[in-house]
Amino acid sequence: MVPVHAACALLSLAPLLVLGVPPIWTQPEQVHLSYPGKCLNLLPLPHVFSFRDTFPPPLLCNANQYPGHMTLGFFFTGVPGSMVVTWTTFNKTESKVEYGLLGGRLFEMSAKGDATLFVDWGEEKRKMFIHRVSLTGLKPAASYAYHCGSDVGWSDVFFFTALNDSTSFSPRFALYGDLGNENPQSLARLQKETQLGMYDVILHIGDFAYDMHEDNARIGDEFMRQIQSIAAYVPYMTCPGNHEATYNFSNYRNRFSMPGNTESLWYSWNLGSAHIISLSTEVYFYLEFGLELLFKQYEWLRKDLEEANKPENRAVRPWIITMGHRPMYCSDDDQDDCTTFDSKVCKRQNPIPPGLEDLFYRYGVDLELWAHEHTYERLWPVYSDKVCNGSKEQPYVNPKAPVHIITGSAGCRERTDRFNPNPKDWSAFRSTDYGYTRMQVVNASHLYLEQVSDDEYGKVIDSIWVVKDKHGFSAWF
Ligand SMILES: [Fe+2]
Questions:
Q1: For the CA atoms of 194, 155, 123, 208, what is the dihedral angle to 10 degrees?
Q2: For residue 15, is pLDDT > 70?
Q3: Boundaries of each Purple acid phosphatase C-terminal domain copy (predicted)?
Q4: Can you say whether the dihedral through the CA atoms of 355, 51, 263, 44 is positive or negative?
């Protein structure tokens, strides 16, 4: 017989025993969507990465489940009727998505994918499985309900709209950089607006979580859980920033599933009348991970821009929009690269290794989206440090150079930055409010941008229409 005091002791432990039940390691979490890419078989390169065979271990994607993903150096576009679902479990499970048309029978279709093991490079060497399932054959522009996981654990039910592949579609974007796990001030507003259906896609222009690798990558987990309420509903398209650099960008490379075969470092895709290019400015700053990455990206950019500028392509996707983390220009009062004349990302004067300003100008890039500075800044059309307005009265009507927007104030633990009190002539509008940018590519000639201040409860504090009768290099003259 158990003595009374022993029984009491056991009973007092009961709550602890309940709390001690381990979490369900087969439960999907950190669910997010992205557009996949389609291989157009243009530019075979023998070996994209210098670090593939070195440290840390590379992500190995399953070519069958992730179209085009293992094919090197090719040109990718959005694939009508497809979507990639990515999520995490801490035990190995199957990778399944069950889905159906919204309003129809739930889960009447299913698709299988594969999981890759990601071992974080921190002290604990934490392991997680990143699952990827590519849904294909979706009805363009139709809405679907889905959940993901396996028979030993399912996610909540989410919904999304399949890629509308019409070139007359007018997609609506939210875009920002520098959103952290701590002080993510704009997140609640972005979540609500996304769930209200205000956006077709989100662009996160580098610097996630602050930082994903910290606390043995638990900060990365927590951040990916935080953005699930956006990213499980609309494609969450990304590029890397400096806060992803630890362990050779491995948290970034493993957790996201962007088009192409570059582990989400650089790629392009199409939506409506826009060709959108995502790139890594970090190849200019972390040369220890391979100077050849800089040249490989540059060569890929050149080929991609050349292809996008073929008359038959530019006729249907006239807008070329780039996104990269560190700006070419900015007027903040820190000592960042963009505050210097002829920054590393620009690099006009001593073009070895080659910078991007001349390349983008030559191929008629219309709009360049940046972050990194924890502020919002809109530039007048600018090339080679000179203002190139369309006209005095209408600077953004037929501009004579690319338009630059810097939007890195979504919210993070580093707070906002300060501006230099004496900006150069190309600085058109500046704000240190927390916030983010909205963009709509309305049609072949009209593109709208506006800046939302979260500090001012969602007030639009800046807006412009970029209007172009002509695109491409010849439009500058
Ligand atoms: Fe940054």
A1: -10
A2: no
A3: 401-463
A4: positive
Q: Are 373 and 338 in contact (CB under 8 A)?
A: yes
> What is the CA(243)–ligand 1 centre distance, in A?
6
CA of 446 to the centre of ligand 1 (A): 30
Distance 177 CA to ligand 1 centre (A): 8
- Percentage of the chain beyond pLDDT 90 is 82
Residue 383: closest CA among 398, 397, 362: 362
Q: How far is the CA of 415 from the centre of ligand 1 (A)?
A: 12
CA of 391 to the centre of ligand 1 (A): 33
For ligand 1, the distance from its centroid to the CA atom of residue 373, given in whole angstroms, is: 7
Instruction: Mention every residue, 6+ apart, whose C-beta is less than 8 A from residue 350.
Output: none
> 184 C-alpha to center of ligand 1: Å?
15
Looking at residue 348, its pLDDT comes to 85
Rounded distance from Cα 242 to ligand 1 centre (Å): 5
- H/E stretch holding 271 reads strand 267-271
Model confidence at 56, pLDDT cuts 50, 70, 90, reads: very low
Cα of 210 from ligand 1 centre, angstroms: 10
* Region label for 22, one of left (φ > 0), alpha (ψ between -120 and 50) or beta (otherwise): beta
Q: What are phi and psi of 195, to 5 degrees?
A: -70, -25
Of 131, 110, 470, the closest CA to residue 318 belongs to: 470
Amino acid 440: pLDDT: 98
| Single pTM value for the model | 0.90
pLDDT of res. 473: 98
Tokens of 31: 């669910």
Strands (E), 170-290: 172-176, 179-180, 201-205, 208-209, 236-239, 267-271, 274-278
Domains of the chain: 38-59+73-78+167-476 (3.60.21.10)
List, for residues 252-305, the tens digit of each pLDDT value.
999 999 998 899 999 999 999 999 999 999 999 999 998 999 999 999 999 999
Q: Residue 58: pLDDT above 80? A: no
For residue range 339-356, list pLDDT tens digits in order: 999 999 999 888 888 999
Q: How far is the CA of 208 from the centre of ligand 1 (A)?
A: 9
